[in-house]
Amino acid sequence: VSIIGEREQGQDVRTGNITACVGLANIVKTSLGPQGLDKMLVDSIGDVTITNDGATILSQLEVEHPAAKVLVELAHLQDKEVGDGTTSVVIMAAELLKRANSLIQNKIHPTTVIAGYRLALKEMIKYIKNYLTVKVDDLGRDALINAARTSMSSKIVGSESAFFSEMVVTAMERVKTTDNLGKTKYPVRAVNILKVHGKSSKESMLVDGYAIEMTRAAQGMPTSLEDAKIACVAFNLNKFRLHMGIQVLVKDPKELEMIRQEEMNITKQRVKKIIDSGANVVLCSGGIDDFALKYFVEAGVIALRRVGNADMRRIAAASGAKVVTDLSDFETAEETFDAANLGFCKSVLEKRLGDYDHMFFEGLGATSCQTIIIRGANSFFLDEIDRSLHDSLCVVKRILESNAIVTGGGAVEVALSVYLDDFARTLESRELLAIAEVAESLLVIPKTLAINAALDATDLVAKMKVFHHASQTSEDSSKRELKYYGLDLLNGKVRNNMIAGVLEPALSKVKSLKFAIEAAIAILRVDDMIKIAPKLTEDEKMRLAQQQAKAQGQDFF
Questions:
Q1: Which of 226, 234, 280, 435 is the one with CA 20 to 30 A from 504?
Q2: List 38, 383, 391, 488, catalytic entry
Q3: Is 86 an active-site residue?
Q4: Over the chain (557 residues), what is each successive 10-residue block's mean pLDDT?
Q5: d(Cα 397, Cα 45) in Å, to the nearest integer?
Q6: Is the pTM of this model over 0.70?
Q7: Long-range contact pairs involving 452-460 (C-beta distance under 8 Å, separation at least 24)
Q8: Contacts for 533 with CB less than 8 Å, ≥ 6 apart
């Protein structure tokens, strides 16, 4: 069959796809772990991003290879589902692919490899749930703080992780909500992160409420109010204008002035209705004219203009207010503003942070909102702290919702590797070869952690395997604790990471193994790649025919 385009088949395609994935994983490999290094990414217009976060690095790269794009999507999925572990999931998937390719080159069919991978995944998840997870209730709040610290240890805020982890855990505990089904949720979106230039990162602070970078619309307004009633209006409070296309024929010049006056009166009546409802803080998504501000100032109301839609929706949800888009009453066609649309807040105050004024809404009536204000020298630093805190917030959320943690530092990977090695020997089918390769692939995480810390990876991984083998085979109950042994990268030793407080959400490990194996399987299943050539115009077709005729030594008429 003739195809207008290129076609690659069989092992060539598989090798090409796997080479592209391994190349992509090598980019993020050196950024894994507490001793990992940062990447500087410069885009086409010269904007610089300095980061250690796997998902951010991969999203900034303009990846063209279709198989490598699968890994970029994989990192995004891990970031969305768990928030942390984006680098390790990409490294893991690339290693699984590399080892699968060597099996296929040794005449093991891809279907057998895929079946082995699926069986290994099933066994790994079962083993994590039954033997490696620990309930947070047994360990208390310290487990949450340690998990947040572990998440930050590889980031730019690693040196201040004790300070930030306390802040992150407190913020997440305060935004606890219960839905209609009685399920407890900890929404990360309820924690607002504000970046303010100046001072050091240790002077960042947590505000029990919502803060926005905004100032009062007029200087005559009060700077603070207690027991505030908040009105959220999503329309302009500028001088009323007739809609486009409406024509007014005026014969008397006096009537023109009356029209102008009535345009102002309509806005005045709207402002009056909002004030009469009892509102003393007004958030407006549009503009507010100076003559309308005069009425707000006289009434002692704080008015904010051009508030972002996202901020307004959040403040409305947290205070119990309704965002009003129109004052018209559908039944009477009269304009009204009902007091039921107002939200409540204990205090609203304006405070200067850095170079700009900020409005603080504290003690919101309906749900709890938290704001973390991060300080730092420049925007690169602030952006990286923002990403680090977001990862930690996601980690704490997952632990609070799932109530299960595992030890970090490569402990889970080595434990699973030892277990799968023994499990593979119990099988008689060819899948055992694939499972043995999964067991070897898992060791890429502790090896990379050790290499990035300039340590002897072979020696440390061998020691860990001895400990974990003893914990799984020994009858002595005292040796069961050896399953928590992982790497101590600062001292170059192996230690009990449960006691040392190197903890991660169990969900993060389970999801990263699932995603890595599913991505590897998706790429292994491909054995044919067809690139369709773009459609040619008539001129291009003519030119191509001329070139072909010339190549064959024929005249083209």
A1: 435
A2: 391
A3: yes
A4: 67 85 91 88 87 87 86 87 86 93 90 93 93 85 90 85 91 86 85 89 89 90 91 86 78 82 85 90 90 90 91 90 83 80 91 89 85 89 89 90 89 94 89 92 94 92 92 84 89 90 90 92 83 76 80 66
A5: 36
A6: yes
A7: 452/29, 452/30, 452/32, 452/33, 452/35, 452/36, 452/37, 453/33, 453/34, 453/35, 453/487, 453/489, 453/490, 453/492, 454/35, 455/489, 455/492, 456/492, 460/487, 460/492, 460/494
A8: 4, 5, 6
Annotated catalytic, 133? Answer: no
Active site residue 19: no
Query: Which residue's structure tokens are 């799968």?
Result: 420
What pairs with residue 61 in β-bridges? none
Side chain identity, residue 549: A
Query: Is 527 known to be catalytic?
Result: no
Which of 38, 49, 51, 53 is flagged as catalytic? Answer: 53
**DSSP 8-state code for residue 158:** G
Residues in Cβ contact with 446 at an 8 Å cutoff, skipping those fewer than 6 apart: 409, 410, 413, 414, 457, 460, 461, 464, 486, 487
Question: Is the Cα torsion angle 321, 326, 329, 330 positive or negative in sign?
Answer: negative
Q: How many CB atoms lie within 10 A of CB 349?
A: 18
